[in-house]
Amino acid sequence: xxxxxxxxxxxxxxxxxxxxxxxxLNQPAPLTTRSELLRMxxxxxxxxxxxxxxxxxxxxxxxxxxxxxxTNGGTIIFGVNDQLRIEGVSNPEYVQEELARICREDIVxxxxxxxxxxxxxxxxxxxxxxxxxxxxxxxxRDGRFYMRFGAEKREVSREQLSMxxxxxxxxxxENIPLFxxxxxxxxxxxxxxxxxxxEDVSRVSNLYNTADFIKKDLLMAAGNADEFFPTVAALVLxxxxxxxxxxxxxxxxxxxxxxxxxxxxxxxxSRQVKGNLLHQYEELLRFIERYCDLxxxxxxxxxxxxxxxxxxxxxxxxxxxxxxxxxxxxHRDFVFRxxxxxxxxxxxxxxxxxxxxxxxxxxPASRAIRYGITQRLNPQISAVFGRREYGAxxxxxxxxxxxxxxxxxxxxxxxxxxxxxxxxxxxxxx
Length: 430
Description:
alpha+beta, 3 domains, 14 helices, 19 strands, about 35% helix, disordered N terminus
């Protein structure tokens, strides 16, 4: 059933979405006449249409919207009885406001619906809400998932949930194939050093066949038997450094040293670090160690000395810095082409800035990651990058360890904040 838009429609959106939605509202849209609407109603309920006499149970309405959104979208019409006769609603403004509130507050992630009030010559008014799924899967606020089967909605059982989520979850950017990539773009020594770290590698039939190993064993390539299209994950993990820069330049990281305590101070040195993740990780740490002391224990208090030509080097916890840099590299949101990943080193702090979609991420998710509850954008990259066999030797503990150890060294709590599609972590030194 095609998506239908009704006359005089209104979109209910957050302030962050308003400019885009205003653009959509100004675009011409096909009108659905009342006769076409009547034909929909006379056809009765199906997978994409639900009819309600009134809005009397917000919880059941929430479940119905979630079910439509998780199926393929659809429409709920209020003011129609079980015999398919139009009775109308007496308070259309309240119904529209309550539907907008449900979509905004009771559904995760929130839905931006298309809501319309349609008048008939008899004076009766009906309200229609059109659901267009954009970020499946959806659930109720209490964590329940629903789908629609014909005219019925059903809760997805726990046994089906894992399989269903795998089917509806969209592929991440790390899974996008690079159609210009070839087998020679990969560092064979690095790839097979990683493979040999596992005991069963000698039994792999495609040993030393780079394309087959990446495609069949790592699941990081697409194509049939005669094709090889490596994914973004494969390239940034195992690509030759010069080829990563040529095929995927947005993976570059900019690291800079400033002479003061913020970006307005004089720039001392800046460098663009390119290449695969292991190369970037090692180069970024080398740059940081040129300007900072990385230690394991809190430094002893030093007596203040007047008249020094330069300030003493700041000291940071070594594992906190390594983990912070590793998180920066593996949790980048590669969708953003124009938001660069960067590290700024100041006199007494290090700031790490990454592209990260803030829509749907803040504020609850940004609080949860402080306790190790992550929302990984690149699970394949994270799984390989964090393995001992990859060679990066990343500390364990995640962001909670970074916050704890950096505060132990400096006595100051690290800052974590998200805004304007950026994730920022600022850790302080002693």
